[in-house]
Write a structure and sequence with these properties.
This protein is α/β, with parallel strands linked by helices and 479 residues long. 44% of the residues lie in helices and 8% in strands. The strands form two sheets. An eight-stranded parallel beta barrel has the order 3-4-5-6-7-8-9-10, surrounded by six helices. Strand 3, helix 4 and strand 4 form a beta-alpha-beta unit. Helix 4 runs parallel beside helix 5, helix 7 packs parallel to helix 10 and helix 12 crosses helix 13. The C terminus is likely disordered.
Length: 479
């Protein structure tokens, strides 16, 4: 049986996936192996995901971003979900989670695995509920059956809500928004109906055995994450976190890679405490955070409220950020929402890497700043996080090629452009010194801290010996 990345790392073996990751992170392969062996990082890489371009999640590496996609009972089909996958990869998602709860789940999941160059994650309890028909009709055998099937299909990581226990339920009764995790609410309903312990906790060792067979990374779900600022950092959240620490160590004993999911809605001044506590309780396992949202007052703009928290979390050591789109709390995201959510979170991740002094991360910023001062509009667009959006906004007021050489934009105009005024006040030698180019090709930055935003260029050789899938080939569907 093939080893998991953790088992291989602890045996002293550097796998092909570790070699590929080291290239993408611009670091020695041994650095990757040590982080995997210690549990401080994971490479979500199911043995059966042939299209995968391996990547790493860990606080010692560049901050990663996950994009959630998926259909619902009322919205979306295979073509639409394929378009969302295309958009997610094109705009720079490092992983994608299929949270579908509607029709044709198997067909959509298999299509994603066949096409996606990024790791694919799922929440198997959603499909289990669809099979059962009602959350209270779930059984441990059904849960194990769904987990095993998805592992065999090639899913790279799964959210398992095993940390919420029966004794935690009374702790949620005084909450403002109760249990906001879908998986957590399902498990809580089952426990309340049956008067028994969480079945995912009961069969946790069997789940770990399945994951070890296929090298599925476990993402320990935060069933009791706070759904509003009033519930942040309460007894329920931290009681579950203590269990997640125990489950982390149990999974490691099975040779399974682990990352731990986190809040949620948290005030800015409590984010650092949350990251520090998770790292301590879970022995340094990678922290995968949703936001956190730092205010509750902005429906329609929660990609912004959450990106603020995500940037702080990244600075404090969160390893992966789960994006939030403008539709959060309001509706099912479409392709445009995926784009906006990823832009906000790529900014947060990159800002976190700059703040922590990640090698080479700021080179991208410096190169764009030099192009801006030189009025090299074409280079500005090429270096932008979202080149199409930058060009679109510029050309709305100054269209035409003649303006791509202009020493002004429509904000200040010709007479009041501060950089033009500054340049005109300098002599030529000063200008030449200020506009020296940063050589991004020689940068020590990881791939995710280099332009363009998409991390898969289609020209690299993967650790598994297959060609990467170009973002534009993931499978764009007709609108």
């Amino acid at each position: 049986m093939a080893l998991t990345q953790r088992q291989a790392a602890r045996d002293g073996t550097i796998t092909e996936e570790m070699e590929r990751v080291a290239t993408r992170e611009q670091c020695p392969p041994e650095t990757v192996r040590e982080a995997i062996a210690d549990g401080r990082a994971v490479i979500p890489a199911n043995h059966g995901h042939d299209a995968l371009d391996p990547m790493i999640v860990g606080a010692d590496f560049a901050t990663k971003v996950n994009a959630n996609i998926g259909n619902s009972e009322t919205t979306s089909d295979l073509a639409t979900e394929r378009e969302k996958l295309h958009a997610a990869v094109h705009y720079g998602a490092d992983t994608v989670m299929d949270l579908g709860t509607g029709a044709d789940l198997d067909e959509i999941r298999e299509d994603h695995i066949a096409r996606s160059p990024v790791p694919l994650g799922t929440v198997p309890i959603y499909e289990a509920v669809k099979r059962a028909g009602d959350p209270t009709d779930l059984s441990a055998d059904q849960l194990l059956s769904v987990v095993e099937k998805q592992a065999e299909q090639g899913v790279d990581y799964m959210t398992i809500h095993a940390g919420i226990l029966a004794e935690h339920l009374p702790l949620t009764e005084s909450r403002t928004t109760g249990i906001v995790s879908r998986g957590g609410s399902i498990v809580a309903t089952w426990m309340a109906e049956h008067g028994e312990q969480n079945p995912l906790f009961t069969v946790y060792d069997e789940i770990c055995e399945i994951f070890a067979t296929h090298d599925v990374t476990i993402s320990l779900g935060d069933s009791l994450r706070p759904g509003c600022l009033a519930d942040a950092c309460d007894e329920a959240q931290y009681a579950e976190l203590d269990v997640l620490g125990e489950l982390t160590r149990r999974a490691w004993d099975h040779g399974v890679q682990v990352m731990v999911e986190g809040p949620g809605h948290v005030p800015m001044d409590r984010i650092a405490d949350n990251v520090e506590r998770q790292q301590r309780v879970c022995d340094g396992a990678p922290f995968y955070v949703l936001g956190p949202l730092v205010t509750d007052v902005a429906p329609g703009y929660d990609h912004i409220t959450s990106a603020i928290g995500a940037a702080i979390a990244a600075q404090e050591g969160a390893a992966m950020l789960c994006y939030v789109t403008p539709k959060e709390h309001l509706g099912l995201p479409d392709r445009a929402d995926v784009r906006d959510g990823l832009a906000a979170y790529r900014i947060a991740a990159h800002a976190g890497d700059v703040a922590t002094g990640r090698p080479g991360a700021r080179d991208w910023d410096d190169a764009l700043s030099e192009a801006r001062y030189a009025f090299d509009w074409s280079e500005q667009f090429a270096l932008a996080l979202d080149p199409d959006r930058a060009r679109e906004f510029h050309d709305q007021t100054l269209p035409g090629d003649n303006y791509t050489d202009a020493r002004f934009c429509s904000m200040c105009g010709v007479e009041f452009c501060s950089m033009r005024i500054d340049q005109d006040a300098r002599d030529g030698s000063d200008i030449d010194a200020l506009t020296a180019e940063t050589d991004l090709s020689a940068s020590s930055a990881a791939e995710v801290n280099r332009p363009p935003v998409g991390t898969h260029d289609g020209g690299c050789e993967l650790g598994r010996g297959v060609d990467a899938v170009h973002p534009d080939e993931v499978g764009s569907a007709d609108d």
